[in-house]
Design goal:
Layout: E1 3-7, H1 11-23, E2 27-31, H2 34-44, E3 48-51, H3 60-67, H4 69-72, E4 77-82, H5 87-95, E5 100-103, H6 109-123
Parallel strand pairs: 1-2, 1-3, 3-4, 4-5
Length: 125
């Protein structure tokens, strides 16, 4: 299966996403802030990043700007998974390499698995 980096500052959510995705057979690594995620991104070279937008030390958009996934890791898919629906911030995330945006509040574990599968399948094409 895929190698997934979860970047989420809320410990309970981070653990829940990790459990759900590991149960699906994925190799999962986690970061609780954008700065740590930046280190792990270069080391792990994940197939997919599940990225929160608002975090301590470095926001999701700042992470994308510095990681530059479109250039440095063009096969890596980035799913923005946030409770914020600030269109300017979402547009900036897409401009810097995000593949998809999902509102956390409206997503169930089943929906998360579906979105991850679809996003990974789209990178196989």
């Amino acid at each position: 299966m895929a190698k997934i980096l979860i970047v989420e500052d809320e410990k309970v959510l981070n653990e829940a996403y990790e459990l759900i995705l590991k149960k699906e057979g994925h190799k999962v690594c986690v970061a609780f802030d954008g700065a740590k995620a930046l280190e792990m991104f270069a080391e792990q070279k994940p197939d997919l990043v599940l990225l929160d937008l608002r975090m301590p030390k470095m926001s999701g958009v700042e992470f994308l700007q510095k990681a530059n996934p479109s250039k440095n890791f063009p096969k890596t898919k980035i799913i923005i998974f946030s409770n914020y629906d600030d269109q300017k911030e979402i547009d900036a995330a897409f401009e810097h390499g995000a593949s998809r945006y999902i509102l956390k509040a409206w997503s169930s574990p089943k929906e998360l698995v579906k979105v991850v599968r679809e996003t990974l399948a789209s990178s196989d094409k």
